[in-house]
Amino acid sequence: MTRQPDPRWNKNEERNARMRELRDQRNDPIRRRRTFQPLTIAAWFAAVMALAAVAIFIGLLLLSPSLFAWVEEHPGLIEHGIVRNFVEWYRPNALADVPAGEDGKRITIEVVAGANDSEIGQVLFDKGVITSQLAFQYAVLQAGRSGDLQAGVYDLSPSLRPSQIVAALKQQPGVEVTIRLVEGWRLEQVVGYLGTTKLTMNLDEFAALAKAPPADLIAEFDFLADLPAGRSLEGYLYPDTYRVDANATAREVIEKLLGTFGERLTQEIRDGIAAEGLTIDQAVTVASIVEREAVLDTERPIIAGVYLNRINNPTAGTVGLLNADPTLQYGLATANFGSKPISEWQGIDWWPPLQTAGGDVALPGELAGYQTYLVKGLPPSPIASPRIGSIAGVAAPDTSGYYYFVAACPGGVRDGSHYFAATLPEQNANIAKANAECPAT
What we know:
The protein is mostly helical. The protein has helices at about 5-75, 80-90, 115-125, 135-140, 160-170, 185-195, 205-210, 215-220, 250-265, 265-275, 280-295, 300-310, 325-335, 390-395, 425-435, and strands at about 105-110, 150-155, 175-180, 240-245, 405, 420.
């Protein structure tokens, strides 16, 4: 007899199979999540970071103008690396070592004692010497001189680079510049010309030293030993071509000019001056007049002899009067322009032609000594800077007997030569001859 299966067993089997099926269904998704979850997280994280980067970048772009403006208001912050990196990224030209412009005009800047770099930069910006305080502060940092700029008065130019300005304010050596002082210039012309150069010294300081040299400066040079009290250095700023450091001080430049004068004044010339019975200052005074009159080197000793003859022989026809037109020009220009500001000196004609006869030129009382048609002897001071050839002419003059001279015009050409005469009739004849050669137009 066949035994029938127990129905309960079948039900158990069915239930177990169903449970296995349900368990398998649950296990499959779990395995899939475990397989793909890291990739999903990585992708999600990357997306979030990308969005954050975009947001930060957009925010930085939007905020950059405000940030940069804030940095410009606080230029000293450029010393911090993160600030410098931001400026180099956002506005790299703001740190460029370029001048504010091509204008070579001199602008006087005063750096007061105790001023910090940012305050100095503000002064330079306000005066128009720089257009970027950031570039100035960066130049200070690059030079390694933060907080080490020197108080003083400087003449700077917008044509200077920030690094050159920093060097000037530090009074460190700068580039060498060539200056050319012309023979026959008076002191004001020298100052006016120096104002057109790249020298950063203050012109007012230079002029003050030249017009009222201190005792310790005079004591440096033996040829100034007999300089009368209260006298300027007129006549002693030796005319020559110089190579000068752009950041030299006013005193250093004056010492260089005086030093060159001393080098040119040889012992032979000194001995010749003494043999003529003159002091060095008197010789320079005569030589300054010779400088304004002579054109040809061969005539310098002759013209010097004429003036010395007039002084040394007061009973001659010139009765001790120099009758020197250049001294009148000097007096007139001093009276008319002497009070003008230094900034205008370069544009002044300091040697205007005389408009009347020498004896009719009127000078104010304090300048009366330069009216050499009326006042005997030498004028109160030299009137210009003579070359050494003119001084040598005074030290070894041709005193053969001439008392007069007039500009010649051989062949109808003003070649710088002169006709010389011992007497007034000879002088009048020479004047007639010169006028015939070159009729007045």
